[in-house]
Structure formats: structure tokens, C-alpha cells
Amino acid sequence: MYLTSWSGGKDSCFACYRAIKKDFKVAYLVHFVRENNLHGVAPELIKLQAGLSGIPIIQKEVSSNDFESEFKDTVKRTGDIKGMVFGDIYLEEHRTWLERVCKDLNIEMFMPIWGVNTERLMNDFINEGFEAIVVSGKQEVIDKKWMGHKVDNYLMEYLKKKPGVDVCGENGEYHTFVVGGPLFKGRIDITESQVIERDGYWFLDIKDFTTVR
Predict the structure, then answer these.
(1) What gap in Å lies between CA 5 and CA 15, rounded to an integer?
(2) What is the DSSP letter of 123?
(3) How many C-beta atoms lie closer than 10 Å to residue 161's C-beta?
(4) pLDDT tens-digit series, residues 4-55
(5) How far apart are CA 82 and CA 108, in angstroms?
(6) What pLDDT score does 131 carry?
(7) Given 3.40.50.620, 3.40.50.720, 3.40.50.2300, 3.40.190.10, which CATH number is that of 2-110?
(8) 29, 67, 121, 191: which has the highest count of C-beta atoms within 10 A?
């Protein structure tokens, strides 16, 4: 059995989906809630999203100062786990950290979207039928009007015109929330929201939503 590191965004979701397609048995999604939540999505909404996937979710509040020990403790408490799935794409420092931590935990590390060209990855995500929206982004990178916008070819073309910006947002340029797709038994429709700004970021403050099954 495997765990999937889960943020509610497109990369962790797509990594989990690809792992399942390769017959990995994902027992739990693991969502770490940090005080400086740059994804901007409430934990309760991510719990609802996970419910639509049919995979149980473990949510754990963690502090940046003690993240590694809390990460390890959370994984250990899940029981007899063979490995963990991650949605990282190309940041070597992330991979190095994950390799070391997984080795300490004596579990496998599986990264099904690692090394994939990010433009191709975005196209694959869209073509597989997933739907995601932009929920946060650096003000210096992305305009306010894109908050709440679907992850689609229009967004890709906009980002491709910006020098040094990764279309997948792998360097933290923006974050997403998956609202539907083949991993889920239903979808989430955002019915009321507003855009707020904080510390150089735009955030989509989701005030109301409905679920369609």
C-alpha cells in the first residue's frame, strides 16, 4: 500500500492518478496544512475533494520549523506502508530531501511525473479530462484576472509569453485546485469567491461551492 502526498493541486492529483493507473494501491492521501498556506484553499474543502476521490485523507497541521519530524511521524502512524507518491517535476533540492526522508522511513519513493516536460504535462492533464482552477499566484508573475480561471490552453499561452516562468508553476509561480476529473466521483463548482492580496500574492477566497455527483 502507498500514500500520496496531496496538496489538492494538479501535480499531486495527476501523480496519484498515474500511480493508480500503474496499479499502485493508494491507501491514503496525506495533506500537510502549513501556517503559510500558499495554495490558499481551506483544509475543509480539500477534505471534501478527497472524499470525491474515494481515498481516505489524513490531514496534519505542521509548522515550518519542525516539518521534517512531523512529516516522518505522520507517515509512521499510517501503519504498514510500502512507499509514497509525490508530484514533483524537476526541482532537484526537493527530490534530494524526499530521497533522504524516504530512506530514513524505509519506504519507496515514487515520482510518476518526474522529468516530464511541463508543457506536455499540462496538455496531458487537460486531455485526460481533469479540471483545475488557479487559486493563488505571485503578483509579479500572474495577473489578478486569472484567479479562478480554468487550467487550460489559454492559461498556458499566457504563461509561455513570460520569460523564466514555468507553465506548470513548479517554481511556485501559481497554485491550483482540482475540481473534477477521472479520479473523482463528482465535481466541485465554485459558486462564490473573491480575490484578495497578501504578501505579494493573489488568493482566491472561496466563499461558497456546490458538489455535483
Answers:
(1) 9
(2) H
(3) 8
(4) 999 999 999 999 999 999 999 999 999 998 766 667 799 999 999 999 999 9
(5) 6
(6) 98
(7) 3.40.50.620
(8) 29
